[in-house]
Amino acid sequence: KKNRPGTLLSVIAAPAARETLTATIFRETTTIGVRYREMTRECLDRETQDVTTPFGPVRFKVALRNGEVLNASPEFEDCVRLADASGRSVKEIQAAATKAWLDARRS
Fold first, then answer.
1. Contact (Cβ atoms closer than 8 angstroms) between residue 37 and residue 27
2. Domains plus CATH for the chain?
3. Of 32, 34, 53, 104, which is the most buried if we count CB atoms within 10 A?
4. What would the pLDDT profile of 56-90 be if each residue is shown by its tens digit?
5. What is the pTM of this model?
6. Alpha-carbon distance 50 to 73, whole Å?
7. How are strands ordered across the β-sheet holding 56-65?
8. What is each CA distance from 20 to 25, 26, 49, 54, 98, in whole angstroms?
9. 3-state helix, strand, coil in the chain (%, to 5)
10. What does the alpha-carbon distance between residue 70 and residue 62 come to, in Å, rounded to a whole number?
11. What integer pLDDT is reported at residue 1 of this predicted model?
């Protein structure tokens, strides 16, 4: 207000901590009001699958909902490790891992 800089403070906490956190915010800041809302979150089921590439093994992260695969990606750290060891690019290792994972799904 009045063309002064402002600060937005956001807090993510358990509902049971609301009163304590609100009291702390009022005590430690100049604010005269606090907004709060409860949120829920839905997460996909996750699993890790191992695939074998010409460069070595790679873990694949797979996200599912009701058993249907919605997302899948090779573990980045595995791809970096194999890229360093083989002298290939990370993208090439990721492509090989994705191909191996898709081939394994088809068989």
1. no
2. 45-106 (3.10.20.300)
3. 53
4. 999 999 999 999 999 999 999 999 999 999 999 99
5. 0.68
6. 11
7. 45-53, 56-65, 68-74
8. 9, 10, 43, 56, 48
9. 40, 25, 35
10. 8
11. 63
Give residue-wise pLDDT tens across range 86-103.
999 999 999 999 999 999
Residue length of the chain = 107
Give the pLDDT score at 3: 82
CA dist., res. 30 & res. 25, Å (int): 8
Show the tokens assigned to 3: 């063309």
Q: How far apart are CA 33 and CA 14, in angstroms?
A: 19
Token pair listed for 41: 């979150």
Distance CA 107, CA 103 (A): 6
